[in-house]
Amino acid sequence: MIKQFSQLVFEKNTHNNNWYAQVNIGMYTMSVGYGPTMYGRGPEHDAYEVAVWETRTDDDVPLTSENDVIGWVDREEIDSLMHVLLTEPMFGECCRLLKRTGYSARFSNIGRFRHREFA
After folding, report:
1. Measuring CA to CA, which of 16, 47, 52, 112 is 20 to 30 A from 77?
2. Where exactly are the structural domains of the chain?
3. What are phi and psi of 118, to 5 degrees?
4. Are 70 and 64 in contact (CB under 8 A)?
């Protein structure tokens, strides 16, 4: 089972020139990507876009209080999120509650400040 960023295998989408890796972690599926139409510049900048959904239901897990994806996330932050997905089975439900109530979740500010580096 993949548990670290270093184990992800990225494949290129020839339609949009973006790169994606997808992995199942516990009851969740995580997508990590980068490219010209994504919120991440890839390995040379250590900045990626991340989305998570529940594998069984395809329900998105809102990773911020504003959006279901987070951008400009580095490898260390992705490793941290992978660990949480593996060890916290109620993570998706908690994130949905935090979004409904407008409360800013733990991962809400991960990429916010890094985006300024690439603006």
Report:
1. 16
2. 5-118
3. -110, 0
4. yes
